[in-house]
From TrEMBL:
It comes from Capsicum baccatum. This is 3'-5' exonuclease domain-containing protein. GO terms for molecular function: 3'-5' exonuclease activity; nucleic acid binding. The keyword Hydrolase applies. PANTHER family: 3-5 EXONUCLEASE, WERNER SYNDROME-LIKE EXONUCLEASE. Residues 29-216 form the 3'-5' exonuclease domain. Signal peptide: none annotated. SUPFAM superfamilies: Ribonuclease H-like. The keyword Nuclease applies.
């Protein structure tokens, strides 16, 4: 995924302003060591998000210069990054003359949820280095593992979480990760890196939070009974653009898989109708691999041009469907699978 940066080339000494452009999203980024600029950023953030202050999600990350001497103590935190929506702050705390109480109060507000990868350790380091407390902190790895029902994500890095939750790839070069973060003037590569860490932490948290809402509503929905005669099936979530894709693979005709009855909470009526159509036309059989995919592609691609909130809804509907089906039914089918991607 390409990343670009626009430098506003401000002549003032208090801060620098950039637009970091990621996947056509412009992230307004302030780089500063001035406490007054930090207070301004916090004030503007709260004013802009007044309607959601009771549950504000804030992307969080820190950077420091690595110490390559064996047994030596870690260097102190050099930058603190915060992001809400498309507004990012890179606070060069190591060069700051003081740490404003406005920032301390913001970070210690119980109404705000700070999200990041390995955030517990980052919070401890920030406390040890500067005496700054972080109140409500959530590790995105644990949150994603629970929402997506995937324990492997508990050991994932931000790159893996972005791929699984946001559905895009990012590149994190080691040359930037291990660079001199305590320099007075950060390079453009460092600014892009620091900004995206905070922004993508926010995005992952935002999408997972949306899934929480969807899943809570889903559990209340009436459960639709689907009978799949002569074959087993398993519903799972996937994030592949804005299309709905149905893949059907061949079963092994094992008698123990016959007459499987399942209850699946179907959030998308069109998806349910497609399953019924395939079942009816196959007369107890089924379509094979590419043939099934082609059939669905022909039907769906035309409809997928409608304007929809694809990023959030494709994830939430898919996750909600998987969570409800897997937890209620615990169905297993190694030879036949159905993958839903809601528009």
């Amino acid at each position: 995924m390409g990343v670009r940066i626009k430098d506003y080339q401000l002549t003032c000494n208090s801060h620098k302003q950039y637009d970091v452009i990621f996947d056509d999203t412009e992230i307004e980024t302030i780089v500063t060591r001035d406490p007054a600029q930090v207070c301004s950023w916090v004030n503007e953030t709260e004013e802009t998000n007044q309607c959601r202050l009771h549950r504000l999600i804030v992307g969080f990350d820190i950077e420091w210069r690595p110490n390559f001497i064996s047994g030596a103590a870690q260097n102190p935190v050099a930058t603190l990054q915060l992001c809400v929506g498309t507004r990012c702050l890179i606070y060069q705390i190591i060069h700051a003359p003081s740490i404003p109480w406005r920032l301390r109060n913001f970070l210690n507000d119980d109404d705000y949820r700070f999200v990041g990868v390995g955030i517990e350790n980052d919070a401890k380091k920030l406390l040890n280095d500067y005496g700054i407390e972080l109140s409500d902190k959530v590790d995105l790895r644990e949150w994603a593992a629970e929402e997506l029902d995937n324990d492997n994500l508990r050991r994932a890095g931000l790159k893996d979480l972005v791929r699984e939750v946001v559905g895009t790839q990012i590149y994190k070069p080691k040359s930037v990760t291990l660079s001199a973060w305590d320099e007075r003037w950060l390079s453009l590569d460092q600014i892009c890196y620091a900004c995206l860490d905070a922004y993508l932490s926010f995005e992952v948290g935002r999408l997972l939070d949306s899934c929480d809402d969807i899943i809570r509503e889903t559990i209340k929905e009436d459960v639709v009974e689907v009978e799949v005669s002569g074959q087993s099936s398993i519903a799972s979530s996937s994030i592949i653009g804005s299309e709905e894709i149905l893949k059907v693979d061949e079963e092994d005709n094992n008698p123990k898989n016959d007459e499987v009855e399942r209850e699946v909470s179907i959030l998308d009526e069109e998806t349910y109708n497609m399953i019924e159509e395939l079942e009816t036309k196959s007369s107890g059989g089924f379509y094979y691999g590419a043939k099934a995919s082609q059939k669905i592609d022909d039907q769906i691609v035309i409809e997928s041009n409608q304007e929809t909130d694809t990023d959030e809804m494709s994830l939430c509907y898919g996750v909600a469907l998987e969570r409800v089906s897997s937890k209620i039914l615990n169905a297993r089918a190694p030879n036949l699978f159905i993958t839903f991607v809601s528009r």
